[in-house]
Amino acid sequence: MIHLFWLFVGLVLLTVGGEALVRGALAAARRLGVSPLLAGLVIVGFGTSAPELVVSLQAALSGSPAIAVGNVVGSNIANILLILGISAVIMPLVTHIQSLRRDGLTMLFATLLFMGLASFGGLGRLEGILMLAALAAYLVWAYRTEREDTSSPEAQLHKAESEEIEVVPMSIPMTLLATVGGLAMLIVGANRFLLGAVGLGEQLGVPEAIIGLTVVAVGTSLPELAVSIIAAIRKHADVAVGNIVGSNIFNILCILGISSVITPLPLEGRLLTIDQFVMLGAAVLLLLFLFFGLRLSRLKGAILLGAYVTYIAAMFGLQG
């Protein structure tokens, strides 16, 4: 029961802290005159991945690299199969391929880059630097091209992502409280969440990689779930899908990049032989839906959900 208690406490702190951090950062950006385009591209994309970043960093530093990597791989799988599946079942998502083509292909490139670098036994400091350099190149490229043509579909999408979060702190003290308090809750929440997750896995005899791929991954993906469901209900399909695509890019290039620069992340076992290929398959499946269907119907959402349930069932079935 104590493991479940810390798991719940950590989950609440991660969810509330991530939400507060994003809103505080957006309020600060608007007060400083940062363009909605840059705010949507960086703050919203990075902010919704903040729980994954803090949890993966703490897991890596505490000697649980399987949870650190499993968290990112599992989050990317859950973002596409689970979260977009739920969003499409609630409200069919009609997307515009022009606004998602570049970021969708970048997500696929990031996935392939991770798999290529990790194929040599894991991610070290050099691999981390390469991933961070790729992230910086993507951000510079995206911002420059969108700034030159603010009416482009990509620019309108990232602007809409920042405007999707309407309620932000209005005063300077509340902005500071939301930002600093959100960060503090993320750090404490990650510590408690990992304590509960690792303890529960040890008690049940479940490997750390599976804990990272399931409990930790789904828990840290709650901010993406909230943003995508709200956007789907408002019929802002491009924002719902763009939020997931952007989060997956940040998860791989930023979180694994920072984590592996700080401490090496070995990749072995099922993460190397199974799960990274499931992540690649989910990314390809999403791109096929977008490029050829342009609409995530309820049926396609049900297919994504069914694929996720099958993946989880097979995982625990093989584990016994």
UniProtKB/TrEMBL annotation:
Pfam families listed in its UniProt record: Na_Ca_ex
Record field: transmembrane: 77-97, 104-123, 129-146, 167-190, 210-233, 245-265, 277-294, 301-318
InterPro entries: K/Na/Ca-exchanger (IPR004481), NaCa_Exmemb (IPR004837), NCX_ion-bd_dom_sf (IPR044880)
Gene3D superfamilies reported in the protein's UniProt record: NCX, central ion-binding region, NCX, peripheral helical region
The keyword Cell inner membrane is annotated on this UniProt entry: no
Keyword annotations: Membrane, Transmembrane, Transmembrane helix
Protein location: Membrane
Domain Sodium/calcium exchanger membrane region, first and last residues per copy: 3-143, 176-316
Membrane topology field: Multi-pass membrane protein
Protein name stated in the entry: Calcium/sodium antiporter
Organism: Cellvibrio fontiphilus
Lineage: Bacteria, Pseudomonadati, Pseudomonadota, Gammaproteobacteria, Cellvibrionales
